[in-house]
Amino acid sequence: MQPDPVIFTPLLAAACTIFLWSCYRRFSLVTVGTAEDRFSSTMERLQGMFVYAFLQKRVVKRPFGVNHVFIFWSFLVLAVANTEFLVSGVFPAAKLSLLLPAALYQPLLIAFDLVSLFALVAVAIALVRRAVAPPYKGARTGEAFAILSMIGTLMLAYFCFHAAEIAMGHEAAAHAMPLSSALAAALSGLSSETLGTLGVVSWWLHAGVLLFFLNYLPYSKHMHILAAIPNCYFKGLGTPNTQEREEFAEGNVYGAGSIENFTWKDLFDSFSCTECGRCENACPAAATGKPLNPRRVMHDIKVNLLANGAQLQRGGVATVPVIGEGEGSVEADALWSCTTCGACLNACPVFIEQMPKINKMRRHLVQMEADFPEELLNLFENMEQRSNPWGIAPGDRGKWVGGHEVKPFEAGKTEYLFYVGCAGSFDSRAKQVTLSMARILDAAGVSWGILGKEEKCCGDSVRRLGNEYVFDKMARENVAMFQEKKVTKVITQCPHCFSTLKNDYRQYGLELEVIPHAELIERLLGEGKLKLDMHEAKGGNIVFHDSCYLGRHNGIYEAPRKVIAQATGTAPAEMPRNRENSFCCGAGGGRMWLEEHLGERINLNRVNEALSGSPGTICVTCPYCMTMMEDGLKDRASGETKVKDIAEIVAEGLRGTA
């Protein structure tokens, strides 16, 4: 039943040559991107690749991911069987049965037989799921069904071929192939001629589908089969909670307005996208009817690269814009819909970095085209002229203190700088949190001080909105001031300030010990420096909302929960979407300063989720979250539910206070 090598050899050689050429043509396109170092720390990268690519750690975080693991590992195991299959088609004597001892060969046959069954069942489940409950709208594509059908056909052809061999008595190790033997028993009534025909047809069907599948991969979305494993190797080694710094000089290009402005890794990401829809399902913008869809962004970048890559390699220019309308272009409205919450980054099983690409395209629009929502004009002017989003006089920064005695920070005398932030200084609601923090710090005997009118905005919003030039100016000024005043320890009550001072300012050579108020309060409680009367804590029935910039971007989940539990005696209730799967309030990425004109308001979606548990209090750790939650409650006319920061809940329970 073996084919004539004279016929099969040129077919295999042609198929392999075309496959290699196709892979080279596709993957070489990433070289039009700019340089980026993703080659250092080899051992750490290998470890990450093993955990996330081979052990599929992120894949199995979703229930259906287990089915994908069966398909993935079936591919790896059956790669050995298929290699033998193809080689023996050229050299009939090159069989594992002749190369391996029976002690190794027979267990291998058992594995091939069982794994083929697992793969067939997993493919059938995937087909049913795709047809009945697709992972996202538009997932029922002909390509998806065709790929799954081809995999299923390979498994069926495998069983039929080996069953025919066993039924004809050509397989000495038939006892090591239980499933194929069972099928052979069912075929035992067929004539030798019929069995021979079945074997030949099955062999060629397996060979044809395998070679076609191999050559179809580079031109399909399933190219991720080739790209996903190396993409896990080249993943960022840290949490992408900051973005690349720009150097400003005449003639430089800022942001990504054309496909060649992305890095090679950005472009390789587009080939690695599995289009599983996890980023789309996690994205708050996509969930509320905005034009942004992270999966679609990656698809458009890939289409754009395929359209422009070859001519760019020849020294030409891109003709399809990366920002615009139509296939291969990302809509500007989609870019401005991003809250930079990081949900897409957290959800992607192969570590595609969608959010940084959106930031790069925003930078291009702002700095190269001066094309941004009109609402941002006042924000940018206020930041440049008065270093705060509202444009309030800097001299008013310290007015929140009222009658509370607050000392200025003094180098060598004060241990902690309390970086109040713009919201804590100017927003009427956030100022109450600032006063609560002041009371907590005093009650614990912490040595702290403020900058007062010398304090400036950290620049988080302008950086996430793409105005890197203004951010660069603000960061330089802040770094110089911190260094001059010898600031080494900073307390923040805003996660955006915390993340910017801790992560972004490192790019400017400033290393600070930045402590978010949640962790500081937890520490003070643990050290016994805060005495609370829990029966006086007015938290009520509390549900906790995770801040994206405290949680996903910086991994702080437990500290605020422990604080609430210690302050009230009861752990907070959890929303259905919590911790790393939490849903954004809608204010991140500079969206705090933009109205939502498209789709449902993100904060209403989150407030509705919070209210489903009928809480007395929604507890937050961020002034932006507080604003969005309170606005949502007003819209829902839910006057009985309050929004409080953890500092307020703790301050209410300070011993000897009401």
Automatic annotation (TrEMBL):
State the source organism's domain of life. Bacteria
Any Pfam family from its record, for instance, is Fer4_8
- Where the record annotates domain 4Fe-4S ferredoxin-type, the positions are 264-293, 328-358
Q: Which organism is it from?
A: Citrifermentans bremense
Cellular component, GO annotation: plasma membrane
- Is Iron-sulfur there in the keyword field? yes
Q: PROSITE patterns, from UniProt?
A: 4FE4S_FER_1, 4FE4S_FER_2
- What this protein is called in its record is 4Fe-4S ferredoxin-type domain-containing protein
UniProt keywords, alphabetically: 4Fe-4S, Iron, Iron-sulfur, Membrane, Metal-binding, Oxidoreductase, Transmembrane, Transmembrane helix
Ranges that cross the membrane: 6-24, 64-88, 108-132, 144-164, 195-217
Question: Which InterPro entries does its entry note?
Answer: 4Fe4S_Fe-S-bd (IPR017896), 4Fe4S_Fe_S_CS (IPR017900), Cys_rich_dom (IPR004017), HdrC_iron-sulfur_subunit (IPR051460), Helical_ferredxn (IPR009051), NarG-like_sf (IPR036197)
Q: Work out whether the entry's keyword set contains Iron.
A: yes
GO molecular function, a single term: oxidoreductase activity
